Amino acid sequence: MKTIKDAKFIRQGADFGEIRPVFKRTVWLDKEVDKATLYVSALGFYEAYFNNSRVGKFIFAPGWTVYGKRIQYQEYDVTNLLEECNTLDIALGNGRRYHGNPHENYESITCREEALIAALRIEYADGTEELIPTDDTWQCAKSNIIYSHVYNGETVDYTANTDELFPVKVLDDISTDILVPTEGEEVREMARLEAIKLITTPKGETVIDFGQNLTGYVEWLVPAKKGQEFTLSHAEVLDKDGNFYTDNLRGAKAQVKVISDGNEHKFKPTFSYQGFRYIKLEGFEKKDVDLENFVAVVVFSNMKRTGYFACGHDLVQQLYENIVWGQRGNFLDIPTDCNQRDERFGWTGDIQVFSRTATINYRAEKFLVKWVHDLALDQRANGEYTDICPDIYGWESCGSAAWADAGIVVPYWIYRTYGNTQIIKDQFESMKKWILFMESKGSVRGLNDLHDHHFGDWLSLDAGEEATGGFTDDNLIATAYLAYSNRLFIEMGKAIGEDMSYFEELYKLTIEQYRKTYLNSGKPQHETQTANVLAIYFDLTDDIQREGKKLVDDIEACGHLKTGFVGTPYLLHALTKIGREDVAYKLLLKEDFPSWLFPVTKGATTMWERWDGAKRDGSFATPDMNSFNHYAYGSVGDWLYTTVAGIDSDINEPGYKHIIFKPLPIKELGYAKARIITPYGEVVSGWEYTGNGNECRFTFTIPKGCHATLYLDNEEYEFEDGTYDTVFEYEG
Ligand code: BGC
Asked: Could you tell me if the CB of 439 is within 6 A of ligand 1?
């Protein structure tokens, strides 16, 4: 049977400059058809139309993979769209993910020019079939998209001449072996938000507020004013004076422009997305601006929502909503660090710390499995995982501690949350290479202290203002991660029946060396909050209470957290582990800077990259790196699920087959409840203070075929599946 692999990549046969091409083919049918299937892929983005109907719902198809190794193609059943004479129109978007990025290296390692490949397979009722592949029988035209760029935006000229047809160029030199069926989730339009407010800023700018920082684009009505150019600029925040602020977008222009042909058009960009809450309008008569003509379209990968959390504390509730929005904003085909500036890359450290929360919020299994497979494709021969994936930078050094460890930690949460053991089998050799790489970087066996490329405890508060790398010793973090990643690797290896004795021995040595080298060394860079947190949470210490005391003393002395990307995800878990839930709750409920709730009090609707994204006086941190939609600190979400509401899955029975209920009621929250749709069904845990406040009512639901252990007030209770409702005397 012929497939898309029998087609050829094609490109426009003339120089179109920045104008995006549309490839065309007419297909006449003179026999009865059983089925018609369209296969499409591209170097770049594509959007396909069959008889003028949009084919499929995938935005930014064919999806982002390690393009040098594999490119997805999509398969669409178009039988219902068939007519006697059929027209195929496929627009080809800018492959700026392949090239043209502000980063120099980006250009050098990827393909420079876009190309389309497609095939229409017709299966006739008489049993014969025909393949109509992209080849020199196709033609192309200029589209009205005269400029398009994933960061900069898009310009559409409705007056442009799109009628003239040009030949195509067939690219015999691009092999189709690279094409693979779609593995990930499609990016789709997932929600629509109405504009809530029209603002005139002190500078006199006309601005619309959508009330929510989001990822996507605006669908709007282009006024009928022939030749007039209308511009929409995008921003996440207004500055302290209330003016439109775009400095933090760095090189990303984030502007959509449309030139009117004198007719009204409902418009949205095709090949560009922005991170924004506000848009600034130019070219419009203010009196004609009607909020109803502007809708924000939220786009992200089509995952099913599986985690819900509610509590009686408005700010914590908003924090939780911000965490979920952080995922919506950054789960676009790959897990990105941010969604607005000239970056939006698959930074491994960010997803490493957020993966546990992410797998609970959404059924992110397919999405993450695809990305993890790409991570292995990008992995260097020496075992290093890259700092971003797809690795468009191609930096010589990579393998940063806590970033590269995504290669272990992300598969681990796919396994633990969904009970998926296939991912362990897929990644086993790759994961092993990474552990062996870390092992090879020890001045003695067990340490990981010779590698020279680390991001450290990124954006922590203990290294001075605007410092990025944190004060904690990089080699301490790297050795701690050797222990932690190896421990998870051992657990995963055993789950698929592998002999892990070599790694168990390495683990023992790592713990020994860690204790010798970093615990109580007397060096201040070994005694940071993050160092204490890692020692506790990664089980690196022989005296958890000693490390705990140091941690609590430091928090109490300065009155706040100081941790960055490395320490923050485990901070509250570590405090819980040493029995200092009181301190954990104090940190969670703290409202002034630095804290999780500080951004919420400043009106944040997503997670900020930095604790001080906006400062107390309303000014902003450096625009060089200040995203207002960065999910890393949203990793506290897993503590809300596992500890506040108290739902976890037993490591020995992953996928929530055996549920651990360990809720942590606190009067300040009034109540808390989480609901997680697990592979086995719905798990619920909730608590609520009732009566005079000394009674707490607990409710649990355990899906069929599962069982649970409830830990409450130092007691253990076993439950079979069912729903339970119990009132305890509970001081809290
Ligand atoms: C990204 C981060 C990332 C970091 C690595 C930044 O530019 O936005 O989130 O992890 O670089 O140091």
From this structure: no
